[in-house]
C-alpha cells in the first residue's frame, strides 16, 4: 500500500514541478526583459550612434565635440547595463553566462577602438567593423534572452528579434554612407559590405514578418508602406547598382532618420506587448498550478489518511509474523542445527511446530508458508546430519579395516626382513615398509575426518626429536628434509601419535609444493608458551588472502565438506590442532616459500635434560618400528636413505679383479665439502638390520607388558 502512495506523491510532485518550471521560466523571461533587455537595447542604440559619428571622424581624421558627447552617452549606457546584470541576479542562468562574458569582453575593447580612431589608424571599414562586433555580441545576448517554454511567445519573440537585427543592418548601411559622403566615394570593399548589409536586411524583414501574428505584424507593414521606407529602399538599390554614395547627404539622412525613428518606436511598443503577454501567461500558469496542485494535494492527503489506517492494522499483524520469523531464524533453527552437530536425536514433528499468528488471510498464508519452510529446513538438517554421520561411520569402518590389514602387512614385512640377508631384497623390503607406513597415516586421516581418534598412544613422554624424525619417515620425499638442532624436550605420550601425524602432514605439504631440488628445513625451540616446531620450504608461497583464509581455518576448523577435497591434509592438521589446543600458523618465508609454525602448549611439554636427541639404543618410548625408520632417515646410503651395495664386497680376495699391471686403483674422492661416509659391506648391513629387528622385538615385548 505504501508503494502506490509513494507513486501518487511522486507523480503529483513531478507534475507540480513541471508546471512550476514553466511558470518560473515565464517570470524569469519577464525579469530579464525589464533588466537586461531594456538596458542592452539602449546600449545598442548608443553604440549605433557612436558608430555613425566615428565614420565621419575616420574619413575627415578630425575629432569633433559631437563624437565626444556621444561617447559619454555610450559609457553611461554601458554602466547602466552592468548594473542591470547585477540586478537580474538569480535570473541569470548558466545559459546566459557565456554571452554575457563575451559582451563584457567586447565592451572592454571599446577604449582601444576609440584610441585607434583618434590616432587615425586603420581604414574606415575596419573601424566600423569593430563596432559591428560589439553589436553582434549584443544581439547574441538577445537570442539567449528568448528562452520561454510557451511556444507562441517564443515564436513572436524570435520574430521581433529578427526585425531588430534588420534595424541594425539599416544602421550599418547608414554609418558606411555617412563616411562615404565626407569624401564622396565608396571603395570596392565598402560596396561589397553595403550590398551584404542590404541583402541581410531584406531577408530578416521577410522572416520577421512571416513569424509575427496579425497584431504585431500590421504596424510593421504600415511602416514599410510609408514614404521614408520607400525612399530609403530606392536609394539603397541605386547605391548597390552604381557603387557610389547618394548625390546629397540631406535626402539620405532624412529618410534614414525618419525610418529608424519609427522602427525604434515600433520595436519598443512591440516588446512591451510581448512582455505583457509573457506576464499574463505566467500568471495564468500559476493559477492553473495552484488549482491542480491543491486538488492533487487533497488527493494525496486523503490517500495518506486511508493508508495509515490500513497500515496500522497491517503493521500489527506483520509485527506478530516478524517476531515468529525472528524466533524461528535466530533461535529455534540454530538450536536444532547445534543439537544435530552434537549428535543428538531431533524429532522433526515436534520441533517443526506450526507458527501461530492472527490477521488477514494473506498473513495466515505467509505464516503457513513459513511453517512449511521450517519443516523443510529441519528435515533437511536432520537428513544432512544423518548423512554426515553415515559418511563418518563409513570412513571409520574403512580406516579400521585398512589399519588392521596394514598392521598385518607390517608384521609380515618384519618377518621377511628377519629372514632376508640380501642387501637388495632388504632395500626393497624397506621401501615397501615405508610405503605401508604412509598408507597407515592416510588410514588414520580417514579416522580423523570421521571424528574419531587413532588408537596409538603411550604412557611415557616421547622426545620431540623422535616425533619429528618419525613424522619425516612417514612421507615419500623424506631425503629432501633437513632437521636442524632442536632443544631436548618431550611431549605427552597420549598426544605423540597425533602430533607425529600433524607434523608429517605439514612436512609432506612442504615437499609437494616446493621444487624437487630444494630442501625443507625443520627446526624447533623451547619457548615460554610451549614448544615451537617450524617447517619451512622454498616454494612459490601463497598470497596474503590465501594465508589469511588458511590461518582462519586452522584456528576454527569448519565442518568437513565432501566437495572440498583439495586440502585434506590441512583439514586434518586443523582437526588435530583443535583436539589438543595446538596453534598452527602459516606465513610467508623470507626465502619465498611458506613457513608453518606449530606451537605445542606448555601443558603437553616435559623438559628432560637427560634425554639425548640422537639416542639410538632403542630404549626411548617411541615404538621400535617407528624409531628404526626414523633413524634410517638420517643414516648414510642411497638416495632413499638405504645402504649402498659395494661391488665385489662378498668375493674372496682370489676372485676379485686386479687392476692392470702398472696401474693402481685410486680411491674415488668427492669434493671436500661433501665427503660421503665409508660404505658398509653386506655383512655390516645384515648386522645393522638384525640389530633393528632385535630392537623391534624388544619394543614389542615392552609395549605388551606396559599396555597402551
Automatic annotation (TrEMBL):
Under catalytic activity, the entry for this protein gives: ATP + protein L-histidine = ADP + protein N-phospho-L-histidine
Q: Which domain of life is it from?
A: Bacteria
- Enzyme Commission number, as recorded: 2.7.13.3
List where Basic and acidic residues composition bias occurs.
665-687
Q: Name one GO molecular function term.
A: kinase activity
Histidine kinase/HSP90-like ATPase domain mapped to chain residues: 494-604
Name recorded for this polypeptide: histidine kinase
Amino acid at each position: 500500500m505504501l508503494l502506490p502512495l509513494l507513486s501518487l506523491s511522486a507523480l503529483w510532485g513531478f507534475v507540480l514541478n513541471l508546471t512550476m518550471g514553466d511558470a518560473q521560466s515565464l517570470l524569469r523571461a519577464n525579469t530579464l526583459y525589464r533588466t537586461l533587455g531594456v538596458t542592452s537595447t539602449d546600449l545598442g542604440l548608443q553604440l549605433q550612434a557612436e558608430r555613425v559619428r566615428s565614420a565621419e571622424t575616420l574619413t575627415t581624421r578630425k575629432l569633433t565635440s559631437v563624437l565626444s558627447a556621444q561617447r559619454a552617452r555610450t559609457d553611461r549606457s554601458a554602466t547602466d547595463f552592468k548594473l542591470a546584470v547585477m540586478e537580474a541576479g538569480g535570473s541569470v542562468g548558466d545559459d546566459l553566462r557565456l554571452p554575457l562574458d563575451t559582451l563584457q569582453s567586447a565592451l572592454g575593447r571599446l577604449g582601444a577602438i576609440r584610441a585607434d580612431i583618434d590616432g587615425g589608424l586603420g581604414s574606415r571599414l575596419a573601424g566600423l567593423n569593430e563596432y559591428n562586433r560589439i553589436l553582434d555580441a549584443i544581439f547574441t545576448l538577445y537570442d539567449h534572452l528568448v528562452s520561454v517554454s510557451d511556444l507562441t511567445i517564443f515564436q513572436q519573440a524570435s520574430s521581433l528579434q529578427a526585425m531588430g537585427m534588420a534595424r541594425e543592418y539599416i544602421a550599418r548601411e547608414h554609418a558606411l554612407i555617412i563616411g562615404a559622403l565626407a569624401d564622396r566615394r565608396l571603395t570596392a570593399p565598402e560596396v561589397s559590405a553595403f550590398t551584404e548589409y542590404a541583402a541581410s536586411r531584406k531577408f530578416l524583414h521577410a522572416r520577421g514578418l512571416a513569424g509575427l501574428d496579425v497584431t504585431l505584424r500590421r504596424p510593421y507593414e504600415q511602416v514599410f508602406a510609408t514614404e521614408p521606407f520607400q525612399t530609403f529602399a530606392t536609394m539603397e538599390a541605386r547605391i548597390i547598382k552604381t557603387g557610389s554614395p547618394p548625390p546629397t547627404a540631406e535626402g539620405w539622412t532624412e529618410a534614414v532618420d525618419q525610418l529608424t525613428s519609427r522602427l525604434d518606436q515600433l520595436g519598443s511598443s512591440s516588446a512591451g506587448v510581448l512582455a505583457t503577454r509573457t506576464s499574463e501567461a505566467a500568471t495564468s500558469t500559476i493559477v492553473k498550478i495552484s488549482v491542480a496542485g491543491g486538488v492533487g494535494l487533497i488527493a494525496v492527503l486523503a490517500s495518506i489518511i486511508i493508508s495509515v489506517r490500513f497500515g496500522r492494522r497491517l503493521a500489527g499483524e506483520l509485527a506478530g509474523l516478524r517476531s515468529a520469523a525472528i524466533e524461528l531464524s535466530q533461535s529455534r533453527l540454530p538450536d536444532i542445527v547445534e543439537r544435530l552437530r552434537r549428535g543428538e536425536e531431533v524429532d522433526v514433528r515436534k520441533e517443526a511446530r506450526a507458527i501461530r499468528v492472527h490477521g488477514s488471510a494473506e498473513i495466515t498464508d505467509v505464516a503457513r508458508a513459513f511453517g512449511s519452510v521450517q519443516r523443510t529446513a529441519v528435515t533437511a538438517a536432520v537428513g544432512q546430519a544423518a548423512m554426515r554421520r553415515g559418511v563418518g561411520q563409513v570412513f571409520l569402518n574403512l580406516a579400521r579395516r585398512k589399519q588392521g590389514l596394514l598392521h598385518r602387512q607390517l608384521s609380515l614385512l618384519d618377518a621377511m626382513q628377519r629372514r632376508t640377508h640380501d642387501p637388495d631384497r632388504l632395500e626393497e623390503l624397506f621401501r615397501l615398509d615405508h610405503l605401508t607406513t604412509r598408507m597407515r597415516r592416510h588410514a588414520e586421516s580417514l579416522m580423523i575426518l570421521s571424528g574419531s581418534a587413532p588408537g596409538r598412544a603411550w604412557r611415557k613422554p616421547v622426545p620431540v626429536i623422535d616425533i619429528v624424525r618419525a613424522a619425516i619417515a612417514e612421507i615419500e620425499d623424506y631425503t629432501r628434509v633437513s632437521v636442524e638442532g632442536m632443544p631436548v624436550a618431550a611431549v605427552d605420550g597420549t598426544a605423540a601419535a597425533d602430533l607425529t601425524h600433524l607434523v608429517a602432514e605439514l612436512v609432506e605439504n612442504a615437499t609437494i609444493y616446493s621444487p624437487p631440488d630444494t630442501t625443507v628445513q625443520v627446526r624447533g625451540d623451547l619457548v615460554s608458551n610451549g614448544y615451537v616446531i617450524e617447517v619451512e620450504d622454498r616454494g612459490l608461497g601463497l598470497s596474503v588472502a590465501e594465508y589469511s583464509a588458511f590461518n582462519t581455518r586452522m584456528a576454527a576448523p569448519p565442518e568437513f565438506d565432501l566437495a572440498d577435497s583439495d586440502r585434506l591434509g590441512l583439514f586434518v592438521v586443523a582437526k588435530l590442532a583443535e583436539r589438543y589446543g595446538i596453534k598452527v600458523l602459516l606465513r610467508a618465508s623470507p626465502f619465498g616459500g611458506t613457513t608453518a609454525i606449530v606451537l605445542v602448549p606448555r601443558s603437553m611439554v616435559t623438559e628432560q635434560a637427560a634425554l639425548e636427541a640422537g639416542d639410538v639404543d632403542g630404549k626411548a618410548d617411541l615404538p621400535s618400528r617407528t624409531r628404526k625408520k626414523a633413524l634410517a632417515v638420517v643414516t648414510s646410503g642411497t638416495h632413499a636413505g638405504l645402504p649402498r651395495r659395494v661391488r665385489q664386497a662378498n668375493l674372496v680376495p682370489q676372485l676379485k679383479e686386479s687392476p692392470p699391471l702398472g696401474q693402481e686403483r685410486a680411491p674415488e674422492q668427492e669434493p671436500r665439502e661433501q665427503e660421503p661416509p665409508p660404505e658398509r659391506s653386506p655383512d655390516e648391513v645384515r648386522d645393522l638390520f638384525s640389530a633393528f629387528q632385535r630392537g623391534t622385538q624388544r619394543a614389542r615385548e615392552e609395549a605388551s607388558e606396559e599396555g597402551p
